[in-house]
Amino acid sequence: MTALTADQPLDVALKNDHRPLRLERVLRLLPGRRATYRGRLGDRDAIIKLFPPGHSRAQADFCRELRGITALGQAGISTPELLYQGRLVEGDYCVITEYQADSVELDELLAGSAPVTDGHGDN
Fold it and tell me: Can you tell me the mean pLDDT for 33-47?
């Protein structure tokens, strides 16, 4: 799996896409299973989820992530724009979505600890 050391951005290459990808900050690590980063894809702020090819469930986890994004959108729930789905040159499965500064985690919303808005800043 592509690794980012603390406070040292890492440039990585996408397979079949020439836009520059930079991993800037680790948000969550599930060792050997998934890593989530904040970074940039081209000129867009992004959330990058990497699934290592050496993990037996990497492809299944990657597909489940994409199904979840699709299901939320089909249910009318505001979701970040999907910017890339595929693989890194190094082989990791990769899902990249736009970064939304005002977003809330789904589990916070379901637990009632985050405000519900209409997506336009109005409650």
Answer: 95
